[in-house]
């Protein structure tokens, strides 16, 4: 930073950002180096150079000095006039840099001098990369991550719209749920049909040989009576279903008219 009298400027290399070549350098306001003081960590261990600054001064110690005047022009009147003219032209003429020897990217060669700023070059390179990726993707038949089918980059978090004739992820998920529900309903209908077929077969068997059906029903009722004598908490699901069917079995047995 600047010294309190605004005539010197100090720079330093400090720890812990850098632990080598630490030290302080002082310069005059015109850039002339005054002093260089290296700091060797090995000499001052365990102390390290963490900061270097001028000691502040009290107000009004140093007078407020005006800006230093430019160097005086010496010589005859013609030389002084020519020097002033060149200085005025240099002050009004915008600074230009020679393009000779300067690297120009292949994409910018042959163009006018406009649009050669860093931001412009970065934008052109980015657009060129996206266009190149789009060409390769179209050739391979794929898609660019984070880009739409038209090659335009989408905002973060926004998924690309489905391609023409395709389905989005949400549509695919809904379709899977619909198929799972239909499959479940089909299985339930199949079980119901099998149960009804078994009941129909039992009714037909009873009609063909009622005595045989009656003997079977009585056997089931005897099993139900045995289950009643057991602890209900020890019964499995099939045994509980058999207990619940007692009323239906007695009704069917009564319909056969066989005691």
Automatic annotation (TrEMBL):
GO molecular function, one term: translation initiation factor activity
Segments of skewed composition (Basic and acidic residues): 172-202
Keyword list, A-Z: Initiation factor, Protein biosynthesis, Repeat, WD repeat
Gene Ontology cellular component terms for the protein in this record: cytosolic small ribosomal subunit
Naturally occurring in which organism (per UniProt): Cyclophora tenuis
Keyword Repeat: yes
Translation initiation factor beta propellor-like domain mapped to chain residues: 2-40
Name the UniProt record assigns to this protein: Translation initiation factor beta propellor-like domain-containing protein
Region described as Disordered: 85-214
């Amino acid at each position: 930073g600047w010294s309190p009298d605004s005539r010197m400027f100090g720079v330093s290399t400090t720890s812990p950002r850098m632990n080598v070549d630490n030290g302080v350098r002082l310069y005059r306001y015109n850039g002339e180096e005054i002093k260089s003081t290296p700091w060797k960590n090995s000499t001052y261990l365990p102390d390290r150079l963490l900061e270097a600054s001028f000691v502040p001064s009290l107000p009004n110690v140093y007078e407020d000095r005006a800006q230093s005047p430019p160097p005086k022009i010496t010589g005859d009147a013609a030389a002084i006039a020519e020097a002033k003219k060149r200085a005025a032209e240099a002050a009004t003429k915008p600074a230009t840099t020679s393009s000779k020897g300067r690297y120009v990217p292949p994409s910018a060669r042959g163009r006018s001098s406009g649009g050669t700023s860093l931001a412009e070059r970065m934008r052109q390179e980015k657009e060129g990369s996206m266009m190149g990726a789009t060409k390769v993707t179209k050739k391979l038949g794929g898609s660019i991550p984070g880009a739409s089918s038209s090659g335009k980059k989408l905002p973060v978090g926004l998924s690309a719209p489905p391609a023409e004739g395709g389905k989005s992820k949400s549509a695919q998920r809904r379709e899977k749920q619909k198929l799972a529900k239909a499959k479940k309903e089909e299985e339930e209908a199949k079980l119901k049909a099998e149960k009804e077929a078994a009941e129909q077969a039992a009714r037909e068997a009873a009609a063909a040989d009622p005595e045989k059906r009656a003997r079977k029903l009585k056997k089931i009722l005897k099993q139900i009576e045995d289950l009643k004598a057991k602890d209900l908490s020890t019964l499995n699901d099939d045994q509980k279903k058999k207990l619940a069917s007692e009323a239906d079995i007695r009704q069917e047995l009564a319909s056969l008219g066989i005691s």
